[in-house]
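Researcher: I've got a protein sequence and the SMILES for S-adenosylmethionine. Could you write out the 3D structure of the bound complex as structure tokens? I'd like something to compare against our soaking experiments later this week.
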Amino acid sequence: MEPTIAEEYRRFASREARGASPLYEELASGVAGDRDLIALLYGLPPAKRQPNLLFAAARYVAGTPADYQGFRRTVLDHRDAVVATMLSRRTQTNEPARCAALYPLLASLPQPLALLEAGASAGLCLLPDRYGYDYDGRLAGAVDSPLRLRCRTEGGSRFAEPGAVSVAWRAGIDLNPLDVNDPDDVRWLRTLVWPEQHDRLRRLDTAIDLARPDPPRVVRGDLNARLAEVAAEAPADATLVVYHTAVLYYVPDAGRAAFVAQVGRLGGHWISQEDPGVLPSVDARLGERPPADVVTYALALDGRPVAFSAMHGGWVRWLPA
Ligand SMILES: C[S@@+](CC[C@H](N)C(=O)[O-])C[C@H]1O[C@@H](n2cnc3c(N)ncnc32)[C@H](O)[C@@H]1O
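Model: Sure. Here is the predicted complex with S-adenosylmethionine in place.
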């Protein structure tokens, strides 16, 4: 049975916001017990009821509130503007730190690579070769990059110390590509970062600055509709890698299965970094259960789970080979 909106907001408060954003935890708990806001949310299409979308829309319209009462006033006083923002925008959080989990997998494949990211948002995860990485003090990637992604690791990695990733070609697909050179898109991307997460905001700003002079191409459209045609553009002498992070949750079950089948037919490699529960074929091969108290992604190479990873980057727990 689908959770009710109140349950969804309570779950967001305890599993996603707790320990990460005290304000979002307060807002989500508040909404869960607020009949007026729950009624407003029931008036929206199901895909537009998410906590992240509501909170970001309210902040986009009237800035970050001090507390639940301030947030509630914003939503009720600026109801039309908040709803219009929720209807016209999507949760498109683009988190470059997710590349720290991808990088060792990418580095393990025959170089150079042709990177094709499904659900790329502004394309910041299409630039893994422009970032530096610090795995518990061991440096990798573009060590002189202005953006260094720190990543704590647990467990023994089955991948060698990552060497260089060389990118011959890159492209993304998104229902609504965001443009790092468009001030409104950048304001939305910044608003999607949770309020107290100043490090994430600095990281996002640095990644946007890095992307701006030469942004990756992100094609507009549904990942299933455009995958084959975009993949056909990849150079034949590069290793095709189709990947996606935090995307398939938004795609209905049938679309997920169709996507996995299509990726299989392309003949390249496939990296998924998604919520457990989203890809049954990956889940079935997980040797252990993901942590229950915090949102964690399952990282898999060619359908084989290799690690659990943090929702917004920062740690990877390698699974036994
Ligand atoms: C949460 S964001 C993640 C962005 C990026 N992968 C990252 O990890 O930083 C999810 C993205 O998937 C896109 N998306 C959702 N459903 C899609 C679909 N059916 N086809 C293409 N893109 C989709 C959304 O527009 C959004 O930009």
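Model: Residues 5-88 form one domain. The mean pLDDT is 96.
Researcher: Great, I'll pass this along to the crystallography team.
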